[in-house]
Design goal:
Elements: H1 4-14, H2 21-33, H3 36-52, E1 54-55, E2 62-63, H4 70-73, E3 78-85, H5 88-97, E4 102-106, H6 124-133, E5 138-141, H7 147-158
Parallel strand pairs: 3-4, 3-5
Antiparallel strand pairs: 1-2
Helix pairs in contact: 1-2
């Protein structure tokens, strides 16, 4: 129905969360009608995103370089407090409040055996190592109050290293 290049882009868009085939078609048609220079800039920005955005080596938040994120680099943060969250979106939510001034640790999800996610798939060992090697005096567990979230918290607190 669509040219091959068109269909490939529809397939990419429809693979995104909450984007079905019809919405993907509308997005590609929208792009098709745009100024070619804007489409090229979009493609360059997507390339830059794929090349330059990484996980922070310290907290696993989103970082624009291969080292530490802006939060971990900041000298204004309370380095004795670590807020443990599931995903980078949780960091963004906390940062929007402008009330929490400590550091973060992003686990990358929660333990969910039904989805094949065990402790080894998360950044739990990195959290334990971080706490052992820094002057952390307070850990805030900001994980969703679900069975999986509770399981993750209980697992972390059951580790003898603390």
């Amino acid at each position: 129905m669509f040219p091959k290049t068109f269909q490939k882009l529809i397939d990419h868009f429809s693979s995104l969360p909450s984007v079905g085939p019809k919405m993907a078609e509308r997005l590609v048609l929208y792009l098709f009608k745009r100024d070619p220079e804007k489409i090229k800039q979009f493609a360059r920005d997507l390339h830059d995103f794929a090349t330059n955005v990484h996980y922070c080596k310290e907290c696993y938040n989103i970082s624009e370089n291969k080292g530490e994120c802006g939060i971990c680099k900041s000298k204004k943060r309370d380095r004795s407090t670590v807020c443990v969250v599931e995903e980078p979106l949780d960091v963004i939510a906390f940062e929007k409040t402008r009330r929490y001034l400590g550091l973060y640790h992003v686990l990358g999800g929660v333990i969910s055996p039904i989805n094949g996610i065990g402790p080894d798939e998360l950044k739990i060992s990195a959290l334990v190592n971080r706490i052992k090697t820094t002057n952390t005096s307070e850990i805030i567990m900001a994980i969703s109050p679900t069975i999986e979230g509770d399981t993750t918290i209980f697992y972390i607190w059951s580790i003898d290293s603390f």
